[in-house]
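Hi there,

I know you've been waiting on this one. I reran it after we fixed the sequence typo, so this is the corrected version. Both the input and the resulting structure follow.
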Amino acid sequence: MIDTQHIDRIEGSTAYDAAGEKVGRVGQLYLDDQSGTPSWITVATGFFGTAETFVPLEGASFDGEDLRLAYSKDTIKNAPRFDTDEHLDQGEEAELFRYYGLGGVGGAETTETTQTAHSTTESVHTAPTATTGTTHAGLSTGTTAATGDDATVTLSEERLDIGKAEQVAGRVRLRKYVTTETETITVPVRKEKLVVERVPVADTATDPITEPDGHTEILEEVTLREERVIVGKETVAVEQVRVGKQEVTEEQEVTEEVRRERADVDHDRPTH
Protein backbone atom coordinates (compact mmCIF):
# COMPACT_ATOMS: atom_id res chain seq x y z
CA MET A 1 0.00 0.00 0.00
CA ILE A 2 1.22 3.49 -0.83
CA ASP A 3 1.66 5.72 2.24
CA THR A 4 0.43 9.31 1.96
CA GLN A 5 3.83 10.54 3.17
CA HIS A 6 5.32 9.49 -0.19
CA ILE A 7 2.86 11.47 -2.30
CA ASP A 8 5.27 14.29 -3.08
CA ARG A 9 8.00 11.82 -4.13
CA ILE A 10 6.00 9.49 -6.37
CA GLU A 11 5.50 11.99 -9.19
CA GLY A 12 8.60 11.95 -11.35
CA SER A 13 9.86 8.62 -10.02
CA THR A 14 10.50 5.56 -12.22
CA ALA A 15 7.77 2.93 -12.46
CA TYR A 16 8.53 -0.80 -12.81
CA ASP A 17 6.10 -3.61 -13.57
CA ALA A 18 5.40 -6.67 -11.43
CA ALA A 19 8.39 -8.50 -12.95
CA GLY A 20 10.82 -5.63 -12.31
CA GLU A 21 10.92 -4.37 -15.92
CA LYS A 22 11.09 -0.60 -16.37
CA VAL A 23 7.82 0.89 -17.61
CA GLY A 24 8.45 4.64 -17.65
CA ARG A 25 8.37 7.87 -15.68
CA VAL A 26 5.47 8.59 -13.33
CA GLY A 27 3.53 11.64 -14.48
CA GLN A 28 0.60 12.61 -12.28
CA LEU A 29 -0.80 11.11 -9.09
CA TYR A 30 -4.50 11.12 -8.21
CA LEU A 31 -6.01 10.88 -4.72
CA ASP A 32 -9.32 9.39 -3.71
CA ASP A 33 -11.63 12.29 -2.91
CA GLN A 34 -13.22 10.45 0.03
CA SER A 35 -10.25 8.77 1.72
CA GLY A 36 -7.44 11.01 0.46
CA THR A 37 -5.26 7.99 -0.32
CA PRO A 38 -3.32 7.67 -3.60
CA SER A 39 -5.40 5.66 -6.07
CA TRP A 40 -4.21 6.27 -9.65
CA ILE A 41 -1.09 7.44 -11.47
CA THR A 42 -0.18 8.14 -15.07
CA VAL A 43 2.95 6.58 -16.56
CA ALA A 44 4.76 7.89 -19.65
CA THR A 45 4.85 5.05 -22.22
CA GLY A 46 5.19 4.72 -25.97
CA PHE A 47 8.07 6.00 -28.10
CA PHE A 48 10.19 8.52 -26.19
CA GLY A 49 7.56 8.57 -23.42
CA THR A 50 5.15 10.66 -25.51
CA ALA A 51 1.95 9.04 -24.17
CA GLU A 52 0.66 8.71 -20.63
CA THR A 53 -1.34 5.71 -19.45
CA PHE A 54 -3.53 5.47 -16.35
CA VAL A 55 -2.47 2.74 -13.90
CA PRO A 56 -4.16 1.90 -10.56
CA LEU A 57 -2.03 1.89 -7.41
CA GLU A 58 -3.79 -1.15 -6.01
CA GLY A 59 -1.10 -3.65 -4.99
CA ALA A 60 1.74 -1.21 -5.74
CA SER A 61 4.72 -0.46 -3.48
CA PHE A 62 7.10 2.49 -3.24
CA ASP A 63 10.59 2.32 -1.69
CA GLY A 64 11.17 6.07 -1.70
CA GLU A 65 12.75 6.14 -5.16
CA ASP A 66 11.13 3.54 -7.43
CA LEU A 67 7.49 2.55 -7.79
CA ARG A 68 6.68 -1.16 -8.25
CA LEU A 69 3.29 -1.70 -9.90
CA ALA A 70 1.19 -4.84 -9.66
CA TYR A 71 0.68 -5.18 -13.43
CA SER A 72 2.84 -6.32 -16.34
CA LYS A 73 4.43 -3.85 -18.75
CA ASP A 74 2.36 -5.12 -21.68
CA THR A 75 -0.85 -4.75 -19.69
CA ILE A 76 0.02 -1.14 -18.84
CA LYS A 77 1.09 -0.22 -22.38
CA ASN A 78 -2.08 -1.73 -23.89
CA ALA A 79 -4.46 -0.03 -21.46
CA PRO A 80 -7.05 2.39 -22.86
CA ARG A 81 -5.56 5.86 -23.24
CA PHE A 82 -7.35 9.06 -22.41
CA ASP A 83 -6.29 12.68 -22.09
CA THR A 84 -4.62 13.20 -18.73
CA ASP A 85 -6.90 16.09 -17.78
CA GLU A 86 -8.33 16.70 -14.37
CA HIS A 87 -11.36 14.51 -15.03
CA LEU A 88 -12.47 11.45 -16.94
CA ASP A 89 -16.01 11.04 -18.09
CA GLN A 90 -18.12 8.16 -16.82
CA GLY A 91 -17.52 5.90 -19.78
CA GLU A 92 -13.74 6.36 -19.73
CA GLU A 93 -13.32 5.52 -16.06
CA ALA A 94 -15.66 2.57 -16.34
CA GLU A 95 -13.53 1.23 -19.19
CA LEU A 96 -10.36 1.53 -17.08
CA PHE A 97 -12.01 -0.36 -14.21
CA ARG A 98 -13.10 -3.12 -16.56
CA TYR A 99 -9.67 -3.33 -18.21
CA TYR A 100 -7.74 -3.70 -14.94
CA GLY A 101 -10.39 -5.95 -13.40
CA LEU A 102 -11.07 -3.57 -10.53
CA GLY A 103 -14.26 -3.85 -8.48
CA GLY A 104 -16.40 -1.51 -6.44
CA VAL A 105 -17.15 0.87 -9.32
CA GLY A 106 -19.89 3.24 -8.27
CA GLY A 107 -20.31 1.52 -4.91
CA ALA A 108 -22.10 -1.58 -6.28
CA GLU A 109 -20.41 -4.97 -6.02
CA THR A 110 -21.00 -8.25 -7.82
CA THR A 111 -18.84 -11.28 -7.12
CA GLU A 112 -17.13 -12.34 -10.34
CA THR A 113 -13.92 -14.35 -10.83
CA THR A 114 -11.70 -12.73 -13.46
CA GLN A 115 -8.17 -13.12 -14.73
CA THR A 116 -6.54 -9.86 -13.66
CA ALA A 117 -3.48 -8.07 -14.92
CA HIS A 118 -1.41 -9.21 -11.94
CA SER A 119 1.65 -11.21 -12.87
CA THR A 120 0.77 -14.70 -11.61
CA THR A 121 -2.39 -14.63 -9.50
CA GLU A 122 -6.14 -14.87 -9.91
CA SER A 123 -8.34 -12.67 -7.77
CA VAL A 124 -12.01 -12.10 -7.16
CA HIS A 125 -13.12 -8.62 -8.16
CA THR A 126 -16.39 -6.81 -8.58
CA ALA A 127 -18.03 -5.20 -11.58
CA PRO A 128 -20.58 -2.36 -11.86
CA THR A 129 -24.25 -3.27 -12.22
CA ALA A 130 -26.18 -0.06 -11.61
CA THR A 131 -26.33 3.52 -12.76
CA THR A 132 -24.45 5.67 -10.27
CA GLY A 133 -22.35 8.80 -10.13
CA THR A 134 -19.47 9.23 -7.69
CA THR A 135 -15.97 10.63 -7.40
CA HIS A 136 -13.09 8.13 -7.30
CA ALA A 137 -9.35 8.83 -7.28
CA GLY A 138 -9.92 12.53 -7.70
CA LEU A 139 -11.68 12.04 -11.08
CA SER A 140 -15.26 12.76 -12.04
CA THR A 141 -16.67 9.31 -12.85
CA GLY A 142 -19.86 7.40 -13.35
CA THR A 143 -21.14 4.13 -14.80
CA THR A 144 -24.34 3.72 -16.75
CA ALA A 145 -25.99 0.32 -17.07
CA ALA A 146 -29.33 -0.89 -18.24
CA THR A 147 -32.44 0.50 -16.53
CA GLY A 148 -36.08 0.09 -17.26
CA ASP A 149 -36.17 2.91 -19.82
CA ASP A 150 -32.77 3.02 -21.57
CA ALA A 151 -29.41 1.27 -21.93
CA THR A 152 -25.93 2.59 -22.66
CA VAL A 153 -22.79 0.81 -23.82
CA THR A 154 -19.33 2.35 -24.14
CA LEU A 155 -17.50 1.76 -27.44
CA SER A 156 -13.72 1.87 -27.57
CA GLU A 157 -11.17 1.88 -30.34
CA GLU A 158 -7.43 1.47 -30.68
CA ARG A 159 -5.38 4.43 -31.86
CA LEU A 160 -1.92 4.24 -33.37
CA ASP A 161 0.91 5.59 -31.23
CA ILE A 162 3.55 6.66 -33.76
CA GLY A 163 7.12 7.58 -32.82
CA LYS A 164 10.42 8.01 -34.63
CA ALA A 165 13.91 6.70 -33.91
CA GLU A 166 17.16 7.51 -35.68
CA GLN A 167 19.28 4.75 -37.15
CA VAL A 168 22.41 4.54 -39.29
CA ALA A 169 21.47 4.30 -42.98
CA GLY A 170 24.99 4.10 -44.44
CA ARG A 171 28.53 5.49 -44.42
CA VAL A 172 30.51 7.28 -47.14
CA ARG A 173 34.31 7.33 -47.30
CA LEU A 174 36.28 9.78 -49.49
CA ARG A 175 39.72 8.61 -50.57
CA LYS A 176 42.11 9.29 -53.45
CA TYR A 177 44.54 7.02 -55.28
CA VAL A 178 47.02 7.22 -58.21
CA THR A 179 46.51 5.64 -61.63
CA THR A 180 48.92 5.55 -64.61
CA GLU A 181 47.78 6.42 -68.13
CA THR A 182 49.60 6.72 -71.46
CA GLU A 183 49.28 10.14 -73.06
CA THR A 184 50.42 10.89 -76.63
CA ILE A 185 51.09 14.47 -77.79
CA THR A 186 52.24 15.55 -81.26
CA VAL A 187 54.99 18.16 -81.06
CA PRO A 188 56.27 19.98 -84.20
CA VAL A 189 60.12 20.05 -84.36
CA ARG A 190 62.42 21.73 -86.90
CA LYS A 191 65.53 20.26 -88.43
CA GLU A 192 67.96 21.27 -91.16
CA LYS A 193 68.52 19.02 -94.15
CA LEU A 194 71.41 19.04 -96.58
CA VAL A 195 70.60 20.35 -100.04
CA VAL A 196 73.04 19.76 -102.86
CA GLU A 197 72.67 21.99 -105.86
CA ARG A 198 74.79 21.69 -108.95
CA VAL A 199 75.01 24.74 -111.20
CA PRO A 200 76.80 24.62 -114.59
CA VAL A 201 79.64 27.12 -115.05
CA ALA A 202 80.50 29.20 -118.10
CA ASP A 203 82.95 28.05 -120.74
CA THR A 204 85.40 30.70 -119.58
CA ALA A 205 85.96 29.05 -116.20
CA THR A 206 89.55 28.98 -115.06
CA ASP A 207 91.51 25.89 -114.36
CA PRO A 208 91.48 24.63 -110.83
CA ILE A 209 94.32 25.42 -108.56
CA THR A 210 96.61 22.57 -107.97
CA GLU A 211 98.84 21.80 -105.10
CA PRO A 212 102.63 21.49 -105.57
CA ASP A 213 102.27 17.76 -105.54
CA GLY A 214 99.73 18.01 -108.26
CA HIS A 215 96.63 17.30 -106.15
CA THR A 216 93.66 19.58 -106.05
CA GLU A 217 91.45 19.58 -102.87
CA ILE A 218 88.84 22.08 -101.72
CA LEU A 219 87.15 21.48 -98.32
CA GLU A 220 83.95 23.32 -97.22
CA GLU A 221 82.02 22.47 -94.02
CA VAL A 222 78.28 22.97 -93.38
CA THR A 223 76.66 22.41 -89.92
CA LEU A 224 73.16 20.89 -89.81
CA ARG A 225 70.89 21.54 -86.80
CA GLU A 226 67.60 20.06 -85.55
CA GLU A 227 65.22 20.47 -82.60
CA ARG A 228 64.96 17.67 -80.04
CA VAL A 229 61.85 17.05 -77.85
CA ILE A 230 62.48 17.26 -74.10
CA VAL A 231 59.73 15.81 -71.87
CA GLY A 232 59.22 17.06 -68.32
CA LYS A 233 56.41 16.66 -65.75
CA GLU A 234 54.74 18.99 -63.27
CA THR A 235 51.92 18.44 -60.78
CA VAL A 236 48.95 20.82 -60.97
CA ALA A 237 45.58 20.83 -59.15
CA VAL A 238 42.68 20.20 -61.54
CA GLU A 239 39.61 19.88 -59.28
CA GLN A 240 38.34 19.43 -55.72
CA VAL A 241 35.91 16.74 -54.56
CA ARG A 242 33.76 17.48 -51.53
CA VAL A 243 31.44 15.07 -49.73
CA GLY A 244 28.78 16.45 -47.39
CA LYS A 245 25.37 15.48 -46.11
CA GLN A 246 22.00 17.13 -46.46
CA GLU A 247 18.85 16.51 -44.47
CA VAL A 248 15.68 15.97 -46.47
CA THR A 249 12.15 15.19 -45.31
CA GLU A 250 10.17 12.43 -46.92
CA GLU A 251 6.70 11.08 -46.21
CA GLN A 252 6.47 7.44 -45.22
CA GLU A 253 3.23 5.55 -44.89
CA VAL A 254 2.64 3.34 -41.86
CA THR A 255 0.01 0.64 -42.12
CA GLU A 256 -1.23 -1.13 -39.01
CA GLU A 257 -4.46 -2.81 -37.97
CA VAL A 258 -6.55 -1.20 -35.24
CA ARG A 259 -9.60 -2.61 -33.54
CA ARG A 260 -12.84 -0.72 -32.96
CA GLU A 261 -15.88 -1.69 -31.02
CA ARG A 262 -19.22 -1.43 -32.81
CA ALA A 263 -22.75 -1.64 -31.45
CA ASP A 264 -25.72 -3.37 -33.05
CA VAL A 265 -29.27 -3.08 -31.79
CA ASP A 266 -31.42 -6.23 -32.00
CA HIS A 267 -35.10 -5.49 -31.67
CA ASP A 268 -37.31 -8.36 -30.56
CA ARG A 269 -40.85 -7.71 -31.69
CA PRO A 270 -43.57 -9.29 -29.60
CA THR A 271 -45.61 -11.96 -31.33
CA HIS A 272 -49.40 -11.77 -31.28
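Quick highlight: Residues 90-100 form the longest helix (11 residues).

Best,
R. S.
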